[in-house]
């Protein structure tokens, strides 16, 4: 990993430990991995040394979206089982400096995750990184609980539909009761709502919940609304986090979300139905 | 200290009273199924007292063994018959359930929550004094300031519950006393769970899945016309649950 100049050795001791962010949802397929890739990349773009960990053991998704699947030699479980060191397993991102990926194993199941093992890996990463982004598996069982247990910050990914909101609510309950912070009597996990796959037209047609509806039910601060966009699928097929494509609304919305996560005040965009201009229509712009 | 392998203590168990009017396997199964489907968690493993006080005159004979096993199929746990006509005594005794006379263990007769166990009280006067004190002691309410989420349960034992945040669908709040929700009540709220018929529920926006006072409950369907999504209170009067806008 990065070697620090001898002159700053004294500062390393005092260095604050990494902030651990869990990207979680309860419900599957709502955009956790897409969001983990985008947020991790966004933090790295701002100069923070960031690692994204794929907790979805048995499925492996993050490496595909990050476009590093061909470079996976060792994975998270190998590190947990001490079959490889962290340095061997971490993949340095090719596009974005400061960014590393710890892929999941495709051949194990979630039982490979142990509390002590996960803690050891996070502790080691914490010393050297600014942010650790944990891409949680779906559900509320062991894998998801392991991904959120050590979190300082939770990004709760929700789609504007009743079942997703309900599951997010459930996950928020778990965040309030089953985390290291709660058990240690520290401040609770910081909770943020990230609304994804938002389609203003469908909200207007009454087919989806509105931002207001979801905020009403979940009652946590909103860090972003990511519009439903073909650009997301296109980017992930190319193995590129969508946040790198700043031509797209989804990419811009993720940048805004990262800014808000870091405490910036940024106006929400893409919440209204947009009338396509003549040229846009002609060019079929999205 | 003491060598006993157990200790006997008085206690109060909250049970649903199933007031039977008439019985046929098909009709009963259908009706019970419909009720249980509305609130499966509420009925799951719930103790039930089968009251025969309001049995219609031509309802007999009834296959009580079958009735009990039907109840069990739906997750209920029958534990006693209440107010059975004397001629049924032997038949009911054979089911193994407890027989309790009419008018007992009903809401009205539900004893006060038992006082805290009196430690080694050998002198009767000491007991009396302790009980008096117990009545005077002010029990502080339980105050919750964070939202109560789906899957969470909060019980204010022996006191009121005050929630200063929303209560989500799928959450359950219970209190021996009143319940106040300064936010939307979307989950289930049960006040007076140990039988206090004076207990009430107050909320800023009534959107509950279920409200109950001393075991008398209403489900969301029947709340729709009554102060739905409005500030409301729920209370018992003459054995009926009332819902009124605030
Ligand atoms: N804003 C969006 N617009 C359009 N499609 C999206 C958007 N966000 C995610 N998707 C698509 O939704 C699908 C699921 O996304 P993703 O894999 O990120 O979800 P997940 O929550 O990680 O799923 P899982 O629970 O299986 O881990 C993908 O096909 C992705 O391209
Ligand atoms: Mg995923």
Could you walk me through the main structural features you see in this protein, from its secondary elements to its overall organization?
- The complex is a heterodimer of chains A (286) and B (246).
- By secondary structure, chain A is an alpha/beta fold.
- In chain A, 40% of the residues lie in helices and 15% in strands.
- Chain A has helices at residues 9-14, 32-45, 62-65, 76-80, 86-89, 115-128, 142-149, 162-177, 180-183, 200-204, 211-218, 230-237, 249-261, 278-283; strands spanning 19-24, 50-54, 91-92, 99-102, 131-135, 153-158, 190-198, 222-227.
- In chain A, strands 3-4-2-5-1-6-7-8 form an eight-stranded mixed β-sheet, with helices on both faces.
- The longest helix of chain A is centred in the middle third of the chain and has 16 residues, at 162-177.
- Chain B is an alpha/beta fold.
- Chain B folds into two domains: 16-100, ACT domain (Alpha-Beta Plaits, 2-Layer Sandwich); 142-245, Pectate Lyase C-like (3 Solenoid).
- Helix content of chain B is 20%, strand content 28%.
- Chain B has six helices and 15 strands.
- In chain B, the strands form three sheets. A six-stranded mixed β-sheet of chain B has the order 5-7-9-11-14-15, with no helix packed on it. In chain B, strands 6-8-10-12-13 form a five-stranded mixed β-sheet. In chain B, strands 1-2-3-4 form a four-stranded parallel β-sheet.
- The termini of chain B are far apart.
- The model of chain B is unreliable at 105-136 (pLDDT under 50).
- At the A-B interface, helix 8 and helix 11 of A face loops of B.
- Bound molecules: adenosine-5'-triphosphate and magnesium ion.
